[in-house]
Design a protein that fits this description.
heterodimer; A: 228 residues; mainly alpha; 8 helices; elongated; B: 524 residues; alpha+beta; Porin; 10-stranded antiparallel beta barrel; 8-stranded mixed β-sheet; 7 helices; 33% strand
């Protein structure tokens, strides 16, 4: 795939279409899940820390958890559920209807045409979606922590300063990019090698989502070890 | 969203993500990467438990830096931290164990969860600490560590006490002492039991008596607790009433005695007067009966009665003539009697001039559709007068100077107004110059918009004034609702140097109001 990426012709139009599918198409669901993830996390943290009189740690804990772990992982799972499955379905359908074979016949490299733009689009858009997830989640934690749990704004805000560094955000974005590579590759791979008609396409789609989600969680552990 | 192109959608998402990333990076960079404006300091701690890299370093509770590293150096914790350059720390005057008046550092607990920070004091003497220097004075742990340390001391004391007890009661001697002690205690208990057995009945009786007494006392105290405040309150009332009654009786008795004495004297005097009056009446009656005096003649002489009849006839004729005269006079006076008079006084606060304008007016309204208005205005903008005077007549020729004066003298208005339904047109003299204006009156004349245009020659543009009057009767219908009103408006927007806007309050009296007032005014 790397070779196919480097070799012309470069299909920017396909890349743009895939970026729209992955990025713009997932934006709403990412914002929605980000908001509620941040909100519920803030609510539970405020309760748990409140037992020790340390509610002020709510904001920093939520922000740290979102930037380092939940943002990249949840965004990746959402994109896996939406985009990875879509890739497997589209490419799988093309495979079982022999469109890919037809492309080969017409001397069009199917990897270069179908897989490379999708993988790169996901790698590029995942950090963007992760940033949106983090931002919206932190805003939600402000709303819930200060608005509903009654945590003092000053302490809430100051603790975020003291606990987080820019690298926490950047590390999360790096993770997201790697997750993007993995989940898009799995989706495309499963679709590309789908067989057995419509049933095979359905299986490929399910496998793509399951494998992508599990692999994301496993890689997350190792990436966390490496990055922090 | 179909109408947006793919490029736009991708660009939008990327831009959104970039903005959010930048916001987060900037937000979390507040305490990050400030090494340029800091310098490094070090301190040895016996125990660095709870401290962590990036823990806060504070002076007087304000963060001035953070811990850079914590390493083990010769069985001690070497804590390296950075402090802002504007925080100057002094090394103090070196002593045996302590640098006098030098900077100190201590480990302080930040919260109940066991997170710590370093607290610095800057010191006041000696040279200043430079990059890489050690803090001269390290204060041992305080907070929970201190408490635990104190608890350790207490435990040592407890251990000492138990050790002493062990020395006293331990071994064979101790055992013998303990046996002897228990034997003595046993005998004492036996004696106590014998005494109680002998006096068991008496003790039981005493206990019964005490129980009864305490029950009674409890009952009394309970009763007292409930009733006592009421009893006190009632007693207080009774005493007050008794006091009042005594005062009333005292004053009453005194007054009654005095008035009774006076009454008897007056009664005696009245009886004397009555006797005298009766005798006079008796004398008059005799005279009348005999036809003496004026009344006697009136009652007895017939010619007087005839004359009186003729006089009455003449009087009736005269009254009829008088009635006709009054009716014709009424016809003459009726236009004047229909004249309605309306007196108004209004104060407006001119915002730009920061002064009050007072407006006094009399409206004479012979009929509903027309009126004459006579007004006096004290305006803070005053009257501007421009005149050219000869100031110098040298060889070069005469020099004229234009002098502009402004005085806030009272200005005069005289207007004739005519009304058509809700619109009234006015013209005449407005504030010493010719002018015209108009009123629009709505909601049963409770809301009025007025416009005046006058002083056509004083400034670049004629003076234009707009005014809104809102009567209280719009909200509070009633007799006096038309008396009070609020005003707001603008004055002369065309001439920027005197442009102003204002708001105020006013009241007006009609002749009916004055009549109403006259009826309730006290008469001397």
């Amino acid at each position: 795939m790397l070779l196919a990426s480097c070799r012309p012709p470069y299909r920017f139009k396909q890349l743009l279409i895939s970026m729209e599918f992955v990025g713009f198409g997932s934006l709403f669901i990412i914002m929605l899940t980000g908001f509620f993830t941040g909100a519920i996390l803030a609510y539970q943290c405020a309760y748990a820390f409140g037992l020790f009189g340390a509610e002020t740690l709510t904001g920093s804990t939520v922000a740290l958890a979102l930037c380092r772990e939940l943002g990249p992982v949840m965004a990746a799972i959402m994109v896996a559920g939406r985009a990875s499955s879509g890739m497997a379905t589209v490419i799988g359908t093309m495979r079982v209807t022999e469109q890919i074979d037809a492309m080969k016949t017409m001397a069009v490299d199917p990897v270069q045409y179908l897989i490379v733009p999708r993988v790169w689009a996901t790698v590029l858009m995942m950090p963007v979606l992760c940033a949106v997830f983090d931002f919206v989640g932190i805003v939600a934690s402000y709303v819930v922590g200060i608005g509903f749990a009654g945590v003092d704004f000053g302490s809430f805000d100051a603790m975020i300063d003291s606990l987080l560094s820019p690298f926490d955000v950047l590390g999360g974005l790096i993770k997201a990019a790697i997750f993007g590579l993995v989940l898009s590759f799995i989706g495309c791979y499963k679709g590309f090698y789908a067989a057995g008609g419509a049933k095979g396409v359905g299986e490929a789609t399910t496998d793509a989502v399951v494998y992508a989600s599990v692999v994301v969680l496993i890689i997350d552990y190792f990436l966390t070890m490496v990055l922090w | 969203m179909q109408k947006f192109s793919t490029s736009f959608k991708v660009g939008f998402v990327v831009l959104l993500g970039l903005v959010m990333t930048i916001v987060m990076l900037v937000r979390f960079s507040v305490n990050w990467g400030q090494n340029d404006g800091t310098y490094q300091l070090k301190a040895y701690f016996d125990d660095a438990t709870g401290l962590a890299v990036r823990s806060k370093v504070m002076v007087a509770g304000i963060q001035v830096g953070e811990i850079e590293s914590i390493t083990l150096d010769n069985a001690k914790a070497l804590v390296t931290f950075r402090v802002r350059k504007d925080i100057i720390l002094y090394e103090g005057i070196p002593g045996q164990d302590f640098s006098k008046n030098g900077a100190t550092v201590s480990k302080q607990i930040s919260g109940i969860l066991g997170d710590y920070h370093l607290e610095l004091t800057t010191g006041i003497e000696g040279g200043t600490l430079q990059d890489g220097d050690f803090i001269p004075n390290v204060i041992k742990a305080s907070g929970i560590d201190g408490v635990l340390s104190s608890a350790g001391d207490i435990l040592k004391d407890v251990s000492q006490v138990t050790h002493n007890l062990s020395a006293v009661l331990g071994g064979e001697n101790g055992e013998q002492k303990l046996v002897s002690l228990l034997t003595d205690l046993n005998e004492t208990m036996k004696n106590v039991r014998a005494i109680t057995d002998d006096n068991a009945v008496k003790i039981a009786r005493i206990v019964d008596n005490i129980e009864r007494i305490t029950q009674n006392a409890a009952g009394i105290s309970q009763l007292g607790q409930d009733e006592f405040p009421l009893l006190i309150a009632r007693l207080d009332d009774i005493l007050r009433q008794a006091q009042n009654t005594m005062q009333t009786i005292q004053s009453g008795v005194g007054n009654t005695f005095e008035s009774t004495q006076g009454g008897i004297a007056q009664l005696r005097e009245s009886i004397d007067k009555l006797d005298r009056t009766l005798s006079h009446i008796e004398t008059i009656a005799k005279n009348v009966e005999q036809g003496e005096g004026t009344v006697g003649k009136l009652l007895t002489d017939d010619s007087i009665a005839n004359e009186a009849q003729a006089l009455l006839a003449e009087t009736r004729t005269l009254i009829q003539q008088g009635t006709k005269t009054v009716e014709s006079a009424n016809d003459l006076i009726s236009p004047l009697s229909d004249l309605a008079v309306d007196i108004s006084l209004r104060g407006d606060y001119m915002v730009n001039a920061n002064a009050f304008k007072v407006d006094f007016g009399v409206k004479l309204q012979p009929s509903f559709d027309k009126y004459y208005f006579l007004g006096l205005v004290m305006d803070p903008h005053g009257t501007t007068t421009t005149k050219t005077v000869l100031t110098d007549s040298s060889v070069d020729g005469p020099v004229y100077e234009t002098i502009t004066t402004n005085d806030d003298s009272v200005k005069f208005s005289l207007l004739y107004a005519r009304r058509w339904r809700w619109f009234t047109g006015r013209f005449g003299i407005i504030e010493n110059t010719g002018g015209l204006g108009g009123d629009v009156e709505l909601f049963d004349d409770n809301l009025k918009f007025s416009f005046d245009l006058f002083a056509f020659n004083d400034n670049e543009y004629p003076r234009f004034r707009g005014l809104m009057m809102l009567y209280a009767s719009l909200f509070f219908p009633g007799t006096w609702g038309k008396t009070f009103y609020l005003t707001a408006g603008f004055d002369d927007p065309g001439n920027k140097d005197i442009f102003d806007y204002f708001f105020g309050i006013g009241f007006r009296f009609t002749d009916n109001d004055i009549k109403s007032l006259m009826t309730i005014m006290p008469t001397p």
